[in-house]
Amino acid sequence: xxxxxxxxxxxxxxxxxxxxxxTAGMRLGLGxxxxxxxxxxxxxxxWRDGSLAGLRVVTTSLQCELEARSLGLPVVTLNDAGMEExxxxxxxxxDEVDRHGRLIKGGGGAMLMEKVVASAxxxxxxxxxxxxxxxxxxxxxxxxxxxxxAAFQTVRRALVALGAExxxxxxxxxxxxxxxxxxxxxVDARFHQPFDPPTLEAEINGxxxxxxxxxxxxxxxxxxxxxxxxxxxxxxx
Length: 237
Ligand code: A5P
Known about the structure:
Number of helices: 6
Bound molecules: arabinose-5-phosphate
Number of strands: 13
Radius of gyration: 18 Å
């Protein structure tokens, strides 16, 4: 690790996205996790200093919503009046980014609404530190899935047939499984063999009982990468 710690890189890149891409009057999607939260905070500062008049934000998780509301940001939903055309921009973190701009997301368990919000947006900006760059998706992270609880065993069998090692994410300060913001299970599917990301994304979502998975392969994001040696690189896909 170079000059800046990973936590500092997250702060730098999260704030940079809020400064470079967010403008007054935008309909803005805000992501979740320890990097995107810095974007939320910087948007909050800019809102309070009056430079983002007319902004409306859509959040992707309870974490993000509580932060946005505590900062006084005007939180709306995709179903509210005035949001029929979707979002101008969404900004979010990622767990892995490959050289084609394909992502694994969902380390924080919010990938269902993150994918809804990103796909509702004309532009998608991803904020990461350089440790998230990956030669091959799946090298660092399992693929997270949000699963209807009653369908867990059915989904597990189908994932094993696809070659995955399957685990149910467990709470840290709570016994038992993690329950998502939407009341479902979080299942982590680890693939030890290389896979074709778009094919796997579609195959997993074809399993009945799977609500969404953390592969984001068709989004063409602009990825901001905070470098440990200093500076932020912009990778366009
Ligand atoms: C939340 O569910 C995720 O998709 C996050 O965006 C992703 O896990 C990256 O999180 P960090 O910025 O905390 O590493």
